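To: structure subgroup
Subject: Chain for Friday's discussion

All,

I'm putting the inputs and outputs inline so they're searchable in the archive.
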Amino acid sequence: MNIMPSALTSARSPIDPMQIALYPHILLGMPHLTPFGLARTWLMKELGHRHWLMLAKRLGMATADFRSPEGNEAYAAISALKVNARLSAAKANDVLSIRSELYSVSHARMESVHHLAIADVEIGTVTLQSTFVARAGKDNRSITRSLVRHFRAEGPVLESSLALEVAQLREWGSRFDREEDNAVLREFSFRPSPFEEFNGAGLFYFAEFIALVGRAFCNWEGNAAAAWLDQPLSLLFLGNIDPGEALWIGLHAGFSEVGVRCCTIKRSDGSIAARVRSG
């Protein structure tokens, strides 16, 4: 539930739907929570929506209807993210405040940083990085980078807040591909439903990769996995899937850093859809 000031709801004032959606205060209730605090998957969906709306506003658009130069649908796909927040700090009837910033990190990539607070006490941040994509064919495997109409990377190009995380995940992935001792300790498979895990564009939603990580750790460790919910979590996205495909997530050995776990999320053909670092 968003808490609307009278200035936004007055019948005398024209209503800007994007302004309402970006209002920074949300009264927390059952849709936003789990027994262990703020629901991470809901949070990703909410912040992903805000990222896209902020990007549309930056481009001077009335809605987030992104189009390629040919007029085809294009999407601001999340390519990397980091969650570093005390999700356990949230409970019913708290007011979650979200302060967001959007900036360019290259000619084609944008990042948003979302500062989260409850009762004026910051509980952490979430960083999302996106690039525009479009389908080159009919299926989700054909997703590729795309230009969009009216895109302009205004303002200074800043250093990515995710540079270290992306480099670590790429380096670990390269090392994993080379080393035989990086065996899979545990594995979990999941077949997403097009009624639940795919978004309005027909793509496997980026937030559902986060949900899959949670399902896997719960399957492996039960409620003890809740201790990981307050730990930093980074993801690097490498591909999408089509409805009907299954995903496998594997927890890997051979990572020497104490308190850190690394996983790969694979598609049915064994190709990697995402790399995950927790801790």
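Points worth raising on Friday:
The chain is about 20% helix and 30% strand.
The chain has two domains: 1-158, 162-279.

D.
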